[in-house]
Q: What sequence folds into this?
């Protein structure tokens, strides 16, 4: 309905750490996991500030010690002083984290 014709090709993954992507790791690392933590129940009627999560700990709990964490979430209110939004772009290598 929207396209009269489409061309598709399979190519090697580009280095995602370079522009225009600028991720913290060059690829998606091959063992993708989707993790959803918290949600509206922790925000309404008031934000539950007792709920704090460390990305490295969450990654380890789902069996990832090396990889890339990307996505949206709540920002670190103890650091910025208010509720905020976050776009994670973090490479985890064991106990080390590289944040972009």
A:
């Amino acid at each position: 309905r929207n396209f009269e014709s489409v061309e598709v090709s399979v190519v090697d993954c580009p280095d995602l750490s370079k522009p225009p992507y600028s991720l913290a790791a060059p690829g998606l690392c091959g063992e993708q996991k989707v993790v959803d933590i918290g949600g509206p129940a922790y925000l309404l009627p008031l934000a539950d500030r007792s709920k704090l999560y460390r990305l490295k700990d969450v990654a380890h709990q789902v069996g990832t010690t090396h990889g890339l964490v990307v996505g949206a979430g709540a920002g670190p209110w103890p650091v910025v002083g208010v509720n905020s939004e976050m776009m994670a772009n973090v490479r985890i290598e064991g106990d080390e984290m590289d944040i972009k």
